[in-house]
What we know:
Layout: E1 6-13, E2 16-25, H1 30-40, E3 47-58, H2 60-75, E4 79-83, H3 89-94
Parallel strand pairs: 2-3, 3-4
Antiparallel strand pairs: 1-2
Amino acid sequence: MKDRIVGVEFSERERILIATLEGEVDGSNASELRLAISDRLPSSAAGLVLDIADVRYLDSSGIHLLFDLGRRLAARRQAMRLVIRADSPTKRVLE
Length: 95
């Protein structure tokens, strides 16, 4: 999916879906991103790695997306892990 301000690429490794995001996640694309991830994540997957290391901006819609994905995956007994840069402003927001 290539949106106006966010790109996402998918790969799989040992029953883990890896979604690598680049750009900005906000109210204009968070719902579409949620659908794209949900459509690619099978029930048989062990979990999701969401690589947001190259996300430059994450507004409240993007934060809600992360927490919503985490809750839904936990309910399905699937793990979710985030990849984020140590010096990222996004990391401070999420902490």
